[in-house]
TrEMBL record:
PROSITE patterns xrefs: ABC_TRANSPORTER_1, ABC_TRANSPORTER_2
InterPro entries: AAA+_ATPase, ABC_transporter-like_ATP-bd, ABC_transporter-like_CS, ABC_transporter_ATP-binding, DrrA1/2-like_C, P-loop_NTPase
Origin species: Chitinophaga solisilvae
Protein name listed in UniProt: ATP-binding cassette domain-containing protein
Keywords associated with the record: ATP-binding, Nodulation, Nucleotide-binding, Transport
Superkingdom of source: Bacteria
Length: 312
């Protein structure tokens, strides 16, 4: 079941198309990576999904019905890249205030705050002002404030900013657990290694347009380039490497990276060495990283500017 269905969404400003006819679906419980370079339209898209902006055209379905910003905002948790904590306010008071804004009673809010503060080992921060905390400590408070009301849709924009590896891992494990419990998560970041580790589906946008949409596994398969790394027990000489089945891309210690020719197979590569009595110690396909796919696809769209909408 899809928790979110976005159809032909458009948002135009005077000089450019911020979001240009974007459609996508997100299944319940998915961790959906929203990717794109600076100025690609990600923030505008997120603000329409959260009801902050209204689209010029298109529709949003939330949990099987038309999105109603006034009511559905209570089912959404949004942690923007620009943090929204009040720096002079005490941590406990602020967390309680934000929980009440999401519709929790004072009793229920205090119960949940206590649970999360104990889980994140920050109970002693209750009477500290936000500006007394480090950026990473503020990030933990922001994360708790975002998820305390058990949102159906959780939007995280650069959630690991300022966190040390231990606290980053803590937040990451909570993201996985929330997903397993059925929370749908939109995860936006410029750190592609985090995308590969956390997300199961991604969408790449640039200049307001969707240029890529699919599962991590399928995208890596779609953009593979026939590269393989083969480890050898004995390094062959030039004559033993000569073949029409592949070209040598890089030489390593006791290994080669090769690019397979279009009319050859992996068996052809392996048999080439086996027939010469050269032992093969390992053989692996080299799939592109999401970072490599990101760079390639964005560069291909950089020189195609969308038409500026004309006033009626």
């Amino acid at each position: 079941m899809n928790l979110l269905e976005v159809k032909h969404l458009k948002k135009y400003y005077a000089t450019h198309k911020a979001v240009d006819d974007i459609s996508f679906d997100i299944q319940q419980g998915a961790i959906f990576g929203l990717l794109g370079p600076n100025g690609a339209g990600k923030t505008t898209l997120l603000r329409m999904i959260t009801g902050i902006f209204y689209p010029d055209e298109g529709s949003i379905q939330f949990d099987g019905r038309p999105f109603d910003p006034q009511n559905d905002v209570h089912y959404i948790g949004y942690m923007p890249e620009e943090r929204g904590l009040y720096k002079k306010m005490k941590v406990g008071e602020q967390t309680l205030y934000l929980a009440r804004l999401k519709g929790l009673s004072e009793k229920e809010a205090l119960k949940r705050i206590k649970y999360w503060f104990e889980k994140f080992e920050i109970s002693s921060w209750w009477n500290k002002r936000v500006d007394e905390l480090s950026k990473g400590m503020q990030q933990k408070v922001q994360f708790i404030s975002t998820i305390m009301h058990d949102p159906k849709l959780l939007i995280l924009d650069e959630p690991f900013s300022g966190l040390d590896p231990i606290n980053a891992n803590l937040i990451k494990q909570e993201i996985f657990q929330l997903s397993q419990q059925g929370t749908t998560i939109i995860f936006s970041t410029h750190r592609m290694e985090q995308v590969e580790e956390i997300c199961n589906h991604i969408m790449l946008v640039n200049k307001g347009r969707k240029i890529l949409d699919g599962s991590i596994k399928q995208i890596k398969q779609d953009f593979k380039q026939g590269l393989f790394r083969i480890g050898l027990g004995v390094m062959p000489n030039a004559a033993q490497m000569a073949t029409y089945h592949f070209n040598i891309v890089q030489v390593h210690e006791n290994a080669f990276t090769v690019k397979m020719n279009a009319d050859s197979t992996t068996n052809d590569i392996l048999l080439h060495f086996i027939h010469q009595g050269i032992p093969v110690t390992y053989f692996e396909e080299l799939l592109p990283s999401i970072n490599e796919v990101f760079i390639t696809q964005v560069q291909q769209t950089e020189h195609t500017a969308p038409a500026v909408p004309q006033p009626a």
